[in-house]
Amino acid sequence: MARMNGPPVRVVIVDDDALVRAALSMMLDGADGITVVGEAGDGDEVEPLVDAHAPHVVLMDLRMPRLNGIAATRRLRVRPHPPEVVVLTTFDTDENVLRALRAGAGGFLLKDTPPPRIVEAVLRVAAGDPILSPAVTRRLLDRVTAESGAHDRARTALRVLSPREHEVAVAVAHGRSNAEIATDLVMSIATVKAHMTHVLTKLDMDNRTQVALLVHDAGLV
Do you know which Pfam families this protein is assigned to (predicted)? Predict the structure, then answer.
């Protein structure tokens, strides 16, 4: 899945394990449409790399010794024109992954995800489509729906949306791309993007992943 009609997707890799960084760098640099522009061993090293290289995507570990991936993601996402963040994690960090998504991460994957899937995730998130690993999604949703009052709060929040915006939000929660939503709802991609912008503004959210979590909270998926 190459990036069409544009320069390669610039990626920064953040992980305290040098072997993981090397493996990811080798894999991504060998993929069409992606170039690795920097590596960091801790969350507190990310912002200087972002300043220097303006990456489109940051692959972010969660557990790091000085600044964890949640705090680093939050710092990145409040910057002007921030990069997208994809969290790389393991099964035992469900709660932390959920916190990272709410901090603004555009998706998450397990570290044992097959290389083609990681490449696809980088390209899709750079294009504005969230990536949620199916193997972890079910467990996260179980946590979300178990939270006291989450269902009612989510349903109340979604009432600010128009019927069409509501349809787009639900489609996003199903993991549909802009092109797929346009086909399903019989509208142009530009119209889908406009609706998505309105959804984010009305819900005071940063990205599609947060919208998807809210729709899941509401029990609509």
Answer: GerE, Response_reg
